[in-house]
């Protein structure tokens, strides 16, 4: 699905004419099809506009299975039909129409948050240094970017639907400030205090979202931090991986992603608060706070027991059986979350041993005898293929351990529109889906 071009901008503004906002500095109009590069000296500002390449994208498109195969393949070929896709559009693009966001953030957490706002219709202007966002070089793999030039695939993950401009904040502070004056929200991820030092005080009617490693207060406020460092310090590495093995990080920049989600949520709340009260909020979001909050049950287990959780591979500290087991043709995950589901597993896999262990009927008993339960289930599952297991265990949470490409090609991904295109570039789509309002006959 191609993206919708930005509407033409009014003279002297980076933003759509209908916004009613005008900049006194007479900037050239921009749209999402332009990248503005600004190189300045103390006495002059030379502006160079580069139009996005109109040449056809010759890269091989990402291959997914035809939708005509969905009914025969979804659910492991069990004959379940794909329900009509009742979502009217992938995202409700008009929700934030008229909201202007200046994105001064880099790497992942901030750009991920502002991309979510762009998906909801906000006009997002991403300000990069003349040398570009660091993630432009985080490859291989490299691929064709939104502007037709080569860029690391990493950069594409969180920068769609944005107008990208280039300023050196040390020399172009006045230009950036004038851009901010026309915005509703500013997002930045400098060390605490850096933004104010570079640009001076910001207008008090603008929502500011500051994202940092450890937050604006506390003894670590001035420390930098990438996702991997926060995974280490927050304790998540101590519970990830196999027992007795080396520390293992989550396979994606997990803390960056959840920080971006929390930041976007906070900005939406701040916009609502400003609409109700007229007051703008300065949001202080840190990777540290988000990482600790995301420890959820493991943190509460530790507080309740006084003992540190330990890495358990794919197993669950509070549920059994709940882990990956080896089938005849690969790994398969079974997640039993209730005693009723356990009874279904016993019946479907024809397990005999549980009849000699009445205590296994309760999750408490299964957790206390984890090794024996897992051995019993594992022996039964090892005799079946992944497809056979998926057929037998319908109704119980279970799944084959897929590769990333297998997941992207899954019939459910096709049916849900998980992949899209932006300026001819294959990208992941927004995960937000909006249904038709129950009390309306027209589209939402």
Detailed description of the structure:
By secondary structure, this protein is α/β, with parallel strands linked by helices. Among the domains are: 205 residues, Crotonobetainyl-coa:carnitine coa-transferase, domain 1 (Rossmann fold, 3-Layer(aba) Sandwich), CATH 3.40.50; 83 residues, formyl-coa transferase, domain 3 (2-Layer Sandwich), CATH 3.30.1540.10. 29% of the residues lie in helices and 16% in strands. The chain has 15 helices and 15 strands. Strands 2-1-7-4-3-8-9-10 form an 8-stranded mixed β-sheet, sandwiched between helices. The protein is elongated, with a radius of gyration of 25 Å. 29% of the residues are buried.
Keywords:
15 helices; formyl-coa transferase, domain 3; 15 strands; disordered N terminus; 8-stranded mixed sheet; 444 residues; Rossmann fold; 3-stranded antiparallel sheet; alpha/beta
Radius of gyration: 25 Å
Largest sheet: 8 strands, mixed
Distance between the termini: 19 Å
The total count of strands amounts to 15
Strands ordered across the widest β-sheet? 2-1-7-4-3-8-9-10
- Average of the residue pLDDT scores: 83
- Order of SSEs, N→C? EEHEHEEEHEHEHEHHEHHEEHHHHEHHEE
Give unreliable regions as ranges: 1-90
Helix count from the secondary structure assignment: 15
In percent, how helical is the residue content? Answer: 25-40%
The name of the CATH topology of one domain is: Rossmann fold
Strand proportion: 15-25%
How would you name the CATH homologous superfamily of one domain?
A: Crotonobetainyl-coa:carnitine coa-transferase, domain 1
Q: Report the CATH C-level class of one domain.
A: Alpha Beta
> What structural class do you assign from the helix and strand content?
alpha/beta
| Shape assignment | elongated
CATH architecture term of one domain: 3-Layer(aba) Sandwich
